[in-house]
Amino acid sequence: MTQKRFSNQTVIVTGAGEGIGYEVARQFCAEGASALLNDILPERAQAAAEAIAGETGAQCIACPGDVADVDTVRALVKQAVASFGGLNVCVCNAGLTSWGDFFEYAPADFERVLNVNLRGSYFLAQAAARQFREAGTGGRIVLMSSVTGHRAVPYLSAYGMTKAALEMLARNLVLELSPHGITINCVAPGAVITPRNLDDDPDYEARWGNLIPVGAAIQTADIANAALFLAAPESAKITGQAIVVDGGWTSTSPIPDMDYGKDYEN
């Protein structure tokens, strides 16, 4: 019997209650990993952990909390080690999408999107890297960027800024993490079909699919495939990079007519 790619490994995935994070966690577990699933909503984290464990037979633990809180993200790493004996992969997926007219954008909204998207990812990556260094095993960190870190989208100035910053963080940390056998990379999703996007716009799939060169919106599995690729042993020499998974959208970058304004986080 062929050994699964992530057998005997432990992964943390934040924002794993639904959408991209859920599929990332599900694929890791299907490939043999044990997983600690974080979501800001306790009931959603628990439901995701139970569903993935039931489907894959993997060990899954729900660990809800707000990643904007540094104590919370540090506790995720401690819980992973306590529950599974170590940590191999950390996927910093949780994020807040915050729409707003630049001229009217409020300081409170600015602080919230930075705290979730940057503070949360930065200090979770730090906690994971400290664990990898202490264990002496190396490790993989995957940050979740966005095409909005590459191309301008109306009313997403703060959000796009945070996503571009995550890619710079990955490039910069190559210097400090590489000597410890730790890689850090980003996945930059394009227009992905998720429950929250469909809730925001029931026509999301068709609206974006018509504008994407490959002729279809992106599936959560497409993003998970990229995350697992970056975490796999075969990718040990890939670090400081961003893989854009957008069906070619950034080559043309058309914007559909949309009703902007709804914020959401995972």
Number of helices: 9
Shape: globular
Q: What percent of residues are in strands?
A: 5-15%
- Find the structural class using helix and strand composition: alpha/beta
Give me the Rg, rounded.
Answer: 17 Å
Estimate the mean pLDDT confidence. 95
Low-confidence stretches: none
Strands of the widest sheet, in order across it, are 3-2-1-4-6-7-8
Q: How many extended strands?
A: 9
Structure, explained:
The chain is an alpha/beta fold and 266 residues long. It is built from 9 helices and 9 strands. The strands form 2 sheets. Strands 3-2-1-4-6-7-8 form a 7-stranded parallel β-sheet, sandwiched between helices. α1 runs parallel beside α2 and α1 packs across α8. The chain is globular. The protein starts with 9 loop residues before the first strand and ends with a strand. The model has no long low-confidence stretch (mean pLDDT 95).
List keywords for this structure.
266 residues, alpha/beta, globular
List the helices and strands and how they pair.
Elements: E1 10-13, H1 19-30, E2 34-37, H2 42-56, E3 60-62, H3 70-84, E4 89-92, E5 96-97, H4 107-135, E6 139-144, H5 157-177, E7 182-189, H6 195-200, H7 204-209, H8 220-231, E8 242-245, H9 249-252, E9 264-265
Parallel strand pairs: 1-2, 1-4, 2-3, 4-6, 6-7, 7-8
Antiparallel strand pairs: 5-9
Short description:
With 266 residues, the protein is an alpha/beta fold. 45% of the residues lie in helices and 14% in strands. It has helices at 19-30, 42-56, 70-84, 107-135, 157-177, 195-200, 204-209, 220-231, 249-252; strands at residues 10-13, 34-37, 60-62, 89-92, 96-97, 139-144, 182-189, 242-245, 264-265.
